[in-house]
Amino acid sequence: MTNLILETDRLILRKFEERDMGALYQLLGDEEVNIFLPWFPVKSIEEMKKFYEKRFKGKKYYFAVCLKEDSSDQKRDIPIGYIKAEADESHDFGYALRREFWHKGIATEAGRALIEYLRKDHMPYITATHDRNNPRSGGVMRRLGMKYCYSYEEQWQPKDFPVVFRMYQMNLDGQENRVYRKYWEFYEKHFVEAIG
Question: What is the pLDDT of residue 139?
Fold first, then answer.
């Protein structure tokens, strides 16, 4: 598992390593990047290392997103973001990129590679949620072929304010009618929106 590498035209997806702490700090310490992530920005390399140990290390479906080509400010094989799917029943799919790599199709490209790997690894489905105030993330989900299922309001922790999330799903095993209903059942405020 530690040497698993997924490749696309522009990207290398590989497992995170201890040497990536600086790159992860650059990503997860950025206030703007973290607006829609489910944690507060990290404030130091020491905090980043603890975060990595708790959230990233040893996770089967967590990958560093690295560019194949050198650029003027980016060395090859340095993470510019991450992409992941949880191994729990939610199979929650998520991603984050440094700001300078937004709007270039990188999350979609990395997502396609991870989804293909998940399909081959017999993951039955993936879910993904995005804050209604972050519609571009929903755009990535739709480009990947995920389908909107429902919305729900959550008192988002640890940030502790109400957020309406839109839940998307992709069934990878042919069971097209399956819908992961845990959020619908758990949160009292839930509804279906017209998504344009």
Answer: 95
Token couple for 61 = 């479906």
Q: Would you tell me how many other CB atoms lie within 10 Å of the CB of residue 87? A: 13
- Write out the two tokens for 98: 């440094």
CA-to-CA dists, residue 17 to 64, 65, 85, angstroms: 9, 12, 18
Place of tokens 């571009």: 136
Beta strands in the chain (DSSP E): 5-7, 11-14, 62-67, 79-85, 93-97, 125-131, 147-156, 161-171, 190-191
Q: Would you call 144 exposed, middle or buried from its count of C-beta atoms within 10 A (0-12, 13-18, 19+)?
A: buried
Amino acid sitting at position 44 = S
| pTM beyond 0.85 | yes
